[in-house]
Design goal:
seven-stranded mixed beta sheet; alpha+beta; about 20% strand; globular; 7 strands; endopeptidase fold (from Nostoc punctiforme)
């Protein structure tokens, strides 16, 4: 059993990390957040209630719940996921993947993580982070991050109803992504203002956040 790290990502920020390598190379980082103040007491014994996301190419990707059969994968500025308290970061490795290629990759992965399939025990944000990390680097996230779900799978009756938490409380509005987003403004999500009444997405509302913008990843059109 590995102990949780009690350090925060220091030194270079995301932009400085990227500037020291080629445009295709990026550090893959796990960002971990507290879901409960009780973590300050329980984390020392390797237990806590956490949210996590994976940082790649200067953006953080997570998985949250909503009521639709559509992508629940979203992006935020690193270490600023609204509603949670940032705890620490864990470097998972480096990959050599252009931003455009990664964008195609994450959009395809979003089709496997619909908002209405989120489940605290079997398919939560930490499961997504672990899956994304494994696909990119071959490395799993530390076991302590999702230990609650493993315990809950065995003893679900011990988990209070109040723990049915998701990373995103609002309904999502999706946006399209093009090569221009990489060249002109790779760190600024494009928010679509147009709606088509015939489209199912007319029912999906734009999230309202306090600390940062949550932008849902639009899965590829079939």
């Amino acid at each position: 059993m590995s102990d949780p790290p009690f350090w925060q990502w220091g030194g270079m920020d995301s932009g400085e990390q990227e500037s020291t390598s080629s445009a295709s190379e990026t550090v893959v980082v796990l960002n971990v957040y507290d879901l409960s103040p009780a973590n300050n007491y329980t984390v020392w014994i390797g237990f806590g209630i956490f949210h996590s996301g994976i940082e790649v190419h200067g953006k953080e990707y997570g998985f949250g719940a909503h009521e639709f059969s559509a992508s629940g994968v979203f992006e935020v500025e690193p270490r600023t996921c609204p509603g949670f308290v940032y705890r620490c970061s864990v470097a998972l490795g480096r990959i050599n993947m252009p931003q455009t290629e990664f964008r195609n990759f994450i959009e395809n992965m979003a089709s496997e993580y619909h908002g209405d399939t989120y489940h605290l025990i079997s398919k939560n944000c930490n499961h997504f982070s672990d899956d994304l990390s494994c696909r990119l680097t071959g490395t799993r996230i530390p076991g302590w991050v999702n230990r609650l779900a493993r315990i809950g799978a065995v003893c679900s009756c011990l988990l209070p109803e109040s723990l049915q938490l998701t990373a995103v409380k609002q309904l999502p509005e999706y946006h399209d992504y093009s090569d221009e987003d990489v060249v002109e403004s790779p760190s600024t999500p494009h928010e679509s203002t147009e709606r088509d009444d015939s489209d199912q997405e007319k029912h999906l509302l734009s999230p309202t956040t306090v600390d940062g913008a949550v932008t849902f990843i639009k899965e590829p059109q079939s």
